[in-house]
Amino acid sequence: xxxxxxxxxxxxxxxxxxxxxxxxxxxxxxxxxxxxxxxxxxxxxxxxxxxxxxxxxxxxxxxxxxxxxxxxxxxxxxxxxxxxxxxxxxxxxxxxxxxxxxxxxxxxxxxxxxxxxxxxxxxxxxxxxxxxxxxxxx
Length: 138
Fold this sequence. Notes:
Layout: E1 7-14, H1 19-36, E2 45-46, E3 52-53, E4 61-66, H2 68-80, E5 86-89, H3 98-106, E6 115-123, H4 124-130, E7 135-136
Parallel strand pairs: 1-4
Antiparallel strand pairs: 1-6, 2-3, 4-7, 5-6
C-alpha cells in the first residue's frame, strides 16, 4: 500500500525509555526535522466555526523502537547516506535548555554518543534501509 509520499519521516527510539521519555524525545526529534525541512509543514487548520489552529506536518511520522545497537546502526546508515539525523542522547534528560543540550552533545565523540532517539527524513527507500532492524513502536 502506497502512502502517496516520495519521502518518509521516521523516528527510532531506544526501547528501554519510560513513556514520558519516549514522548519527550519524539517531540524534540520531530521539531528538528520540521526546522530542517519547513516545506513539510502543511496549511493551518480551521474548524467549521472558523476557529484557526496551527499547521502541522503534512505527512505521517513513523515511530520505531529498538535497542542501542539498532539506534547506532540507524545513525551510521543515515550518515552514510548523507542524511543528517536529529539526535537525542541520554545526557539531554539532565539539561534544561537548548544551549546546554548542544554543549552536552558537543563534548562526546560520535562513536560514544549514548543515543536514545534519532529522527530522519529522506527518500522512502533510503529511510526504510536506515531503520532496518527496528520495529514499530508500541
